[in-house]
C-alpha cells in the first residue's frame, strides 16, 4: 500500500466491475499512517482522473473506494456463524467479496501477463509470491516479496542477511 497503492485500487475496480459492485472499502490500521496517507492520495488521484467515481471511462460503470481505519487488529468484520458466507450475504446483507491487498496487488499483473505466467512462479501446489515483513535483530529489515516455497531460512539468512550478533537462529 505504501509503494504502489494504485495496483490495489485498480484491482478493486476490476473486481467491482466483474461482480457488479459500486462500492469498495479498504480496512487499514491507523497505526500505519504512511500507508493511510499514500492510499488516500491515490484514491483522490484516481477520482480526479476519472478512474474511480461515476461513469468510469464513459462506460456507465460507477465504482468508488473508501478507507475504513481500524486500530490494533489485523482482522475486520463481524464474527458470525457460517453459512451464510459473505459472498452470499455480507456487508449490509448484500453479496460481498473479501480479499487482502496481497491478492489484489497481483490482479493487474495476472491480466497483463496471463495465468500461465503467474503459475510459473512458486511451487506446484502454491503458486505466486508471498510478502514478508523482516524485522528484529537481523541485518536487513523491510518488506520482501518472494516466490511461494521460499524457506524461512532463505528469507532470514539470504535476504535479511542473518542475525546482527552472528548467532544461530533456533526456529529455523
Overview of the molecule:
The chain is α+β, with helices and mostly antiparallel strands and 172 residues long. Helices cover 33% and strands 19% of the residues. It has five helices and five strands. It has helices spanning 5-19, 33-48, 101-113, 115-119, 152-159; strands spanning 23-29, 53-56, 61-70, 129-134, 142-147. Strands 1-3-2 form a three-stranded mixed beta sheet. A hairpin with a 7-residue loop joins strand 4 (129-134) and strand 5. Helix 1 (5-19) crosses helix 3 (101-113). The longest helix has 16 residues, at 33-48. The model has no long low-confidence stretch (mean pLDDT 90).
Layout: helices, strands, pairs:
Layout: H1 5-19, E1 23-29, H2 33-48, E2 53-56, E3 61-70, H3 101-113, H4 115-119, E4 129-134, E5 142-147, H5 152-159
Parallel strand pairs: 1-3
Antiparallel strand pairs: 2-3, 4-5
Amino acid at each position: 500500500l505504501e509503494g504502489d497503492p494504485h495496483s490495489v485500487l485498480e484491482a478493486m475496480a476490476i473486481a467491482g466491475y466483474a461482480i457488479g459492485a459500486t462500492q469498495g472499502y479498504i480496512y487499514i490500521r491507523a497505526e500505519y499512517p504512511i500507508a493511510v496517507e499514500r492510499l488516500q492520495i491515490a484514491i483522490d488521484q484516481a477520482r480526479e482522473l476519472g478512474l474511480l467515481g461515476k461513469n468510469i471511462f464513459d462506460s456507465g460503470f460507477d465504482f468508488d473506494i473508501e478507507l475504513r481505519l481500524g486500530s490494533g487488529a489485523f482482522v475486520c468484520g463481524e464474527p458470525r456463524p457460517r453459512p451464510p458466507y459473505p459472498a452470499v450475504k455480507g456487508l449490509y446483507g448484500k453479496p460481498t467479496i473479501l480479499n487482502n491487498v496481497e491478492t489484489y496487488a497481483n490482479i493487474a499483473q495476472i491480466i497483463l501477463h496471463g495465468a500461465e505466467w503467474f503459475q510459473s512462479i512458486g511451487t506446484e501446489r502454491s503458486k505466486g509470491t508471498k510478502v514478508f515483513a523482516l524485522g528484529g535483530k537481523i541485518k536487513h529489515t523491510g518488506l520482501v516479496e518472494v516466490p511461494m516455497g521460499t524457506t524461512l531460512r532463505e528469507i532470514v539468512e539470504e535476504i535479511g542477511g542473518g542475525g546482527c550478533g552472528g548467532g544461530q537462529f533456533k526456529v529455523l
